[in-house]
Write a structure and sequence with these properties.
lyase; Mandelate_racemase_C; Enolase-like, domain 1; TIM Barrel; magnesium; 7-stranded parallel beta sheet; single chain; binds the ligand O=C(O)CCC(=O)C1=CC=C[C@@H](O)[C@@H]1C(=O)O; Enolase_C-like; 3-stranded antiparallel beta sheet; menaquinone biosynthesis; binds magnesium ion; globular; alpha/beta
Length: 352
């Protein structure tokens, strides 16, 4: 190991040498993706993952790299809790596909234990009626769960007001919050005011307005949201995400970045270390994949995920299985493309 790695800072060459690029096929199209590529690193503290979405550029990707380096070269810290409540995540599927998605979170005996369901809405090419029908079907199949919707900023202000009124009714009074209904930070604040003026009592959560903003605390300072969604890789690692939640002073929902079980461990670590965890986490996303790099994927059971710890009691990503890595590995052009992304993110690095 080099001197730099001993100070938790791998050299670029060391990173590239440990990098394994994998591609995981997805069971259901999600966020426009049918598969997900990720780079796995193994370092002195364990395994880490670098998987910014393909369209992301530096400097954004450098946060993802810092997160991977933290996991593999510094470690994920000690947990305050050993298991976490997680929500079911329902992609923008037609109502007749909802039960197939929910089945991955439990059977008739255990599905009741799932506290919340997050439903994707405002998918390009779909209508508000499609969203309302999906929400109504989830509410019917999950009669006690809290409901959240995520529009990924796709609605205009007036569309959001109309949509949230209708979706709120379809959710039978169980709509816990709407995640990033409109794009940006100021528009979130304007929407909160418009909802209040119209007597629509829906809480607003900021996701992209936190993870893609130059200043992740601006949402909180402007009072633009009731709560924040926090994802470890885009926020530069567990330690930085912990500080952001503390400084924001808003309730936080920890979610995944659509990771393999290795990458998911970083989100699990944040949720396991936060002093308060008021909402079920969006960390049940391994269910969206057909395969994983570890022999026992981090899948929720009865609405909960176990926090993986090593023999020192520290949170540690599960160790990939060599056969799985070999089967899922991508080489050639895709590998070179990822190596170039790593180089670019590394040279933009702003962390010590
Ligand atoms: O929060 C969840 O239930 C699952 C995670 C999830 O929805 C997302 C993960 C990664 C990228 C996103 O488009 C999406 C989100 O916007 O929250
Ligand atoms: Mg979101």
């Amino acid at each position: 190991m080099s001197a730099a790695a001993l100070q938790n800072r791998p050299e670029l060459q060391e990173l590239l040498e440990s990098a394994v690029v994998v591609r995981l096929p997805m069971l259901t199209r999600f966020r426009g993706h049918t598969s997900r590529e990720a780079v796995l690193f193994s370092g002195p503290a364990g395994w880490g993952e670098f998987a910014p979405f393909p369209e992301y550029q530096p400097p954004e990707t450098q946060h993802w790299l810092a997160s991977a380096i933290e996991a593999a070269w510094s470690g994920l810290g000690a947990p305050l809790r050993r298991s976490l409540p997680v929500n079911a995540t329902v992609p923008a599927v037609p109502p007749e596909k909802v039960s197939e998605i929910l089945d991955r979170y439990g059977d008739s005996g255990t599905l009741d234990a799932v506290q919340a369901v997050k439903i994707k809405v405002a998918e390009p090419g779909q209508t508000l009626d499609d969203d309302v029908a999906r929400v109504r079907e989830v509410a019917r199949q999950m009669p006690t769960a809290g409901i959240r919707v995520d529009a990924n900023g796709a609605w205009s202000l007036s569309e959001a007001v109309t949509a949230l009124e209708q979706i709120g009714a379809a959710a039978e009074g169980r709509l816990d919050y709407a995640e990033q209904p409109v794009a940006g930070i100021e528009p979130l604040a304007q929407l909160r005011e418009a909802l209040e003026r119209n007597g629509i009592g829906v809480r607003i959560a900021a996701d992209e307005a936190v993870r893609k903003a130059e200043d992740p605390l601006r949402v909180a300072r402007l009072g633009a949201a009731d709560l924040i969604v926090v994802k470890v890789p885009p926020l530069g690692g567990v330690s930085r995400a912990l500080r952001i939640v503390e400084e924001a002073g808003l309730p936080a929902v920890v979610s995944s970045a659509l990771d393999t079980s290795v990458g998911l461990a970083a989100g699990v670590a944040l949720a396991a270390r936060l002093p308060e965890l008021p909402y079920a986490c969006g960390l049940g996303t391994v269910t969206l994949f057909c395969d994983d790099v570890v022999p026992q994927p981090m899948l929720p059971v009865s609405g909960r995920l176990r926090v993986p710890v090593n023999d020192k009691g520290h949170i540690a990503a599960p160790v990939p299985n060599p056969q799985k890595l070999a089967a899922l590995r991508v080489t050639g052009e895709r590998e070179l493309w990822w190596h170039q992304r790593i180089r670019e993110a590394y040279s933009h690095r702003i962390y010590p």
